[in-house]
Amino acid sequence: MLPASLSAYPSAILCLLLAASADPRPLRDIIKAFDIHQTPLLSNPLVNMPSDETVSTGVIISDVIGKTQAIAIFSGLTRDIDPVSGRLDDASQNATVLAPNNNAMKNLKRKPWEDPGDYNTFGAEAYKGQDGEDRAHKNLRRFVERHIVPESPWEEGKKFKTLDGNEVWWESKDGKKKIQPADVEVTSIADKVANGEVWVLDAITLVNMHYESGDLSICFTCGTQFDAPLSSPPKNCPICDDPRQYVPPTGQAWTSLNNEASTSSQRNEFITDPHDPRIHYITTTPTAPSKTNMPAGLSDATTITKQLGIGERAILLQTEHGNVLWDLVAWLDDGTKDFIKAKGGLKAIVISHPHFWTTHLEWARCFGCPVYLQECDKEWLQREDKNNVRTLVTQPTYTILPGVTLIRAGGHFPGSSFLHWSDKPSKPGKLFIADTMMSVPSGFYHADRLPGTTSFSFMWAYPNMIPLPPDAVLGIWKSIKDFDFEESYGGFMGQNVRRKDLKVKVLESAKIFLRRSGHEKAAIYEETV
Ligand SMILES: *[C@@H]1O[C@H](CO)[C@@H](O)[C@H](O)[C@H]1NC(C)=O
Ligand SMILES: [Zn+2]
Ligand SMILES: [Zn+2]
Predict the structure, then answer these.
(1) Where is the domain boundary, 361, 377, 408?
(2) Would you say the pTM of this structure is higher than 0.85?
């Protein structure tokens, strides 16, 4: 049904309306539609705002959505996507359409048919030719479907998945309707009809609804990535609020992988182990490091001069059965992708504990591999795994690849883990220890030592120095008691300990640790290697 006043509309809108049931428009016509001009009268959305009682009976969304000039660009797109136009044309299926106004559509950082991934893969010609058209339409479909909530009337606070599968709800804030979690303002309601409503979205905040994972908020202190865009980051970081981490005196700060300030201030370094060329360390460093000598926490004067995240290392292991990345840093740039791809890519990412989970979904997607985390720590997950790349391990030991075993030890976190790598059963292995136990300065003197020297510490909280109780220390020891190892690799650069009696040193350190903490009767004193 065409509105009677159509002749008063610019011809571009006429084209949009006439496209209703035909084949999808070619991309060049869609691009042209973005040049639409807004007339001052109709650009005031309140003109079309019906009062709460007005529901036009017998009229459905497809009849009215083309009438509001302020949303003409978006309503044109709804007609290009068959499942969407079909739905809006179906009197028996209700929907709330979240229609961005024309300004919002024009001001999007990326056009709705664009996906940065396509440019990465296909270059500047990503949307040329038939394949390009198909890609553009696929992206347009996702864009439009993100704006259709399959419910109306839609109650405040009620969560629904849009047609593209994103969960949304709305809240009243300062007398305004805001679509959550992106916090996008609804400026008016253009129509209320028999099968739903058309809500108009604000130009400035719309961009929050359209972000890629590279735009997601990352906590600068710990490197954890959250399911909220940097334009509206979470209120706080639960990892840093926990006593095992800290918020620096300068306060909670956020960035994202796409954020300009980060891309110019962070880079990753790659160092191959001088004793074993199959082991490579990846660390993040600020391009302009801070010169302060302050201790951790106090030295975080600015986020630009600090590395993104805690400062840990990811360790690439080139095993005979494929590459494993043990632990992770948040920063992932082209240099890192190239480095790892040149080493043969990844079969698996395995992470010791939540402090190093960081941006693991980004890494898993980039390298097309699974990521292994401990199920018992899942309360610390901050992102939904939409592509099913996470494996949450429940077994005490788990074979990642032949010779590569994930060992749950507990203590620092319930799922705090070791990774044991032994390429030949006859040879003692390597133990990757992260924060599950901590190499301490006295342990790096690789000489014969008198009894009574210590090599490791066992803390619940490292930066805040809260020790573990005797049963947790015993649990850590027991988890590795049946494994052989002569080398240990800590969570940070330099923390490698190599010695024939390393296992003896672990047990000795555990006994010293508990005795000096005043635990005279702990069961660990009965243990032998
Ligand atoms: C569809 O929307 C109309 C108009 O608001 C309403 O009267 C009706 O109850 C809705 N139907 C369903 C199934 O929600
Ligand atoms: Zn944090
Ligand atoms: Zn930790």
Answers:
(1) 361
(2) no
